User: Fold this.
Amino acid sequence: MNRIGVLLLNIAVALYLFANGILGFNTGDGWGARGEFRGMLTDIFGRGNLTNALVVVLSICAIAGGIFLLLALFNIDIPITDLILFIFVIVWAAYIVLADIVHPLNKKPDFLPYLVQLSAHLMVLGALVTSTKRFGGRS
Assistant:
């Protein structure tokens, strides 16, 4: 039963990363069209070249993180997978600091939507941690 839960969590997190990575390249203004990365970075840094560059970097990292998460999940052994996932754990922890600590300091968020965002970010971090050998998640 535990294996099914890990499988579902990792697939869900990979889809979350893929979707946010792809949406990061979209500059539209519709509901959810900007993606989570662009919305958060625009709120912190405003619009501009720095924001666009950071969104592209985070989007590429998210897509790569999703791919390597699936590779680790299905035990496809590529020598650098564990290193890439470890680096992405660090990048995602920094993202949590920006999105869930720094960003709320700039504007007071509503409590329940803030908890939804925080829990999604922590689920991603947890799935990434459990998929790396460095943290004892897989052998």
User: Anything to note?
Assistant: The radius of gyration is 15 Å. The chain has a mean pLDDT of 83.
